[in-house]
Write a structure and sequence with these properties.
By secondary structure, the chain is α/β, with parallel strands linked by helices. The protein is 34% helix and 23% strand. The chain contains 10 helices and 15 strands. Helix 5 packs antiparallel against helix 10, helix 6 runs parallel beside helix 8 and helix 8 packs across helix 10. The relative contact order is 0.16. InterPro entries: Gfo/Idh/MocA-like_OxRdtase_N, Gfo/Idh/MocA_Oxidoreductases, GFO_IDH_MocA-like_dom, Glc-Fru_OxRdtase_bac, NAD(P)-bd_dom_sf.
């Protein structure tokens, strides 16, 4: 079988720690190009992973041999580069948040559809073993009705792992648009939608108090209401100075589900009758581990192209998860509860 030829646009930390290592380990993939505006970074990744080094993504997209690209760039560039890639006949895997507005997200989806190409958003939380197992338990009915939930994603901040450290684009509002909510919160809005269904109302407090010389958010707490009426909280923060928290707790009629909350067991199910089931599953990976080889993001992206299937995290799914975060920003600005439009489709 002929290998799929892929390129990675952007050679920062997420490309180095996830996309490039996972592509290299996939037997159906050949890395044929990398791109970064910093020439030395592009050359370094080309030496390590193979392919041609570019400094301008437009030159890279002219290569007709390339089947698919990963877009690993600052948030403000996700939409324009993804659209250009779709128009150049490439399948696109775009990092999250997929765009900086609903309008940009819709344009990305339209471009992929117009060119009959796949568009997938790199939300990896859906593929974590504990999250998959929790979804199975919820859908089986064994844990009963969902009462409430809380989820949090926090760490010390991008300066601890971004390739540019404290000068990273993450702190530049023009390039990032959004801070911890875009870096971490959107992962959790996607996970909650995966586990519990659509989010229809959002209230939020979003602020900046942990980082200096930036006006992007670094702390946020949101109250979310699902389509079925379940209310819970989502927290996203760059202020967890002693380490990370990537946990989700779901309070159900017959049990409490603790996901990524125990250091040894990825999923702990505490039943109302006193029984406790501890599931020792593959733990969620972090950037601190020096490389992410089994997040399943690349695997799922390749599969959807090879099998001509809708991506498991399609552009539409990525947009719905973005909508929740955009609603949280509006809720904070207006001091009100904001409704999320879950019924509109991109045509």
């Amino acid at each position: 079988m002929q290998k799929m030829k892929v390129a990675v646009i952007g050679c920062g930390s997420i490309a180095r720690r996830r996309h490039l290592p996972e592509y290299r380990s996939h037997e159906q993939v050949e890395i044929v190009a990398v791109c970064d505006v910093v020439k030395d970074r592009a050359k370094e990744m080309a030496r390590e992973y193979g392919g041609v080094a570019y400094t301008d993504y437009r030159d890279l997209l002219e290569d007709n041999k390339i089947d698919a690209v990963s877009v690993c760039l600052p948030n403000s560039l996700h939409a324009p580069v993804s659209i250009a890639a779709s128009n150049a006949g490439k399948h696109v895997l775009c990092e999250k948040p997929m765009a900086t507005s609903r309008e940009e997200a819709e344009s990305m989806i339209r471009a992929a559809k117009a060119n009959d190409k796949k568009l997938m958003i790199a939300h990896n939380q859906r593929f974590v073993d504990s999250h998959v197992k929790a979804k199975e338990l919820i859908e089986s009915g064994k844990v009963g009705k969902i009462y409430s939930f809380r989820t949090t994603f926090g760490h010390p901040g991008p300066e601890s792992w971004s390739i540019d450290g404290a000068t990273s684009w993450f702190f530049d509002k023009e390039r990032a648009f959004i801070g911890a909510m875009g870096d971490l919160g959107v992962h959790k809005s996607d996970l909650l939608r995966y586990l519990l269904g659509e989010i229809v109302e959002v209230g939020a407090f979003v602020g900046t108090n942990a980082k200096e010389n930036t006006d992007v958010d670094d702390n946020a707490v949101c109250i979310l209401k699902t389509e079925t009426g379940v209310v819970g909280t989502l927290a996203a923060s760059w202020s967890y100075v002693s380490g990370g928290d990537n946990s989700t707790i779901i309070y159900c009629e017959n049990a409490v589900l603790r996901l990524e909350d125990d250091p040894d067991y990825s999923l702990v199910v505490e039943y109302k009758n006193g029984d406790v089931v501890k599931n020792k599953l593959q733990k969620i990976q972090t950037n601190e581990e020096g490389g992410q080889l089994n997040t399943h993001v690349i695997e799922k992206f390749v599969e959807c192209i090879v099998n001509d299937e809708v991506p498991e995290v399609s552009g539409e799914e990525g947009m719905k998860s973005l909508d929740v975060i955009l609603a949280a920003l509006e809720a904070n600005e207006t001091g009100s509860v904001v409704k999320v439009d879950v019924g509109s489709a991109v045509v």
